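User: hey, got a sec? need Metal-dependent hydrolase folded
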Amino acid sequence: MMGRSHLIIGTTVSLSVLQLAGMPVTAPAVTVALIGSLLPDIDEPNSLLVSKALPNSLIRLLQTILLPVAVFVYFYVQAKPWNLLLAILIAMVSFLPSRSLRKVLMFAIGLGLVFYGHAFAPWNLIAGSLLMLCTTLTHRGLTHTLYGTAVWTGLLYSTTHLQGPEIWVAGGTAYVMHLLADSLTNRGIRPLPPLKWRIRINLMSTGTKQGAVVENVCIVLAFIVAWIAFSPLFL
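Assistant: Yep! Here you go:
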């Protein structure tokens, strides 16, 4: 399913669940719902979430900067022959396609969180480790499982439960909605690997006309749920 559809469906349904459960729909809850609706696709560098967080303009800027950095390392770093090897490595990275370069950036950000982020928040160590792990995963792998759901919801719960349940409930529900939406596709998901059991309803293929129809129907159903949840506020 397309990222736009995941965003609309996951966020709409999760906020509706909060309203129906009598929980406050707060700005932090909306934020984690938006993130949670796209987060399972963090294992795909060209997904909506990753491409918005690391846009093409940033990738082009990085490619522009890396070549001068490689030249600087070669001429000014006094550690021969390692300076040559490092300069070649940096230059090679600058010529990577945007998809691969996003993975490099994700790994670097995760590494920074592991080594320096814990000084600001202890859970940055976990977040950084998971971010680095995601760069090694295949699409619809570990992040599209109940394990990924548990880790994301658990992180939210451990860091926000004292503020109330709405944040972790919204984030966890949005994440689950993403998995349910992907289970409608011909590829489906494997929720409990290494078990081969797969949830695959096979109603659509992403990017096709039939897929667009199914996605639009799901969006309409999500809005109907939202109407049921929020209409009493306006009546």
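Quick note: The radius of gyration is 21 Å. Let me know if you need anything else on Metal-dependent hydrolase.
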